[in-house]
UniProtKB/TrEMBL annotation:
The lineage of its organism: Eukaryota, Viridiplantae, Streptophyta, Embryophyta, Tracheophyta. InterPro entries: HIPP46 (IPR044296). Gene3D superfamilies: 3.30.70.100. It comes from the Eukaryota. This is Heavy metal-associated domain, HMA. It comes from Helianthus annuus (Common sunflower).
Amino acid sequence: MQQKIVVKVSMNGDKKTRKALKIAVSISGVESASFVGSDKDQIAVTGEGIDSVELTTLLRKKVGYTELVSVGPVEAKKDEPKPTVQIDPYQYYYQSYGVPYYYYVY
């Protein structure tokens, strides 16, 4: 079952931001990780079988103060039916000139 984990991390610079995202992606089972929140101080990690405690402890050890905000299932996206467009493959037909004379074997 897919789950979404949101972790708030105190990141002071670009180096810590890259490091935190790299740590989040390195955990087994992670499919995607992205920054969320108004200040981009939260990391949303989605995947299957992710250990949230392991994620927060790794971020605390290597980046800084980390707070686990939420853990829950991924919300399924409702796909709207897209209108299908019928394409005529023979709309543009070009007359071929045949095989060049040097291809003929005599």
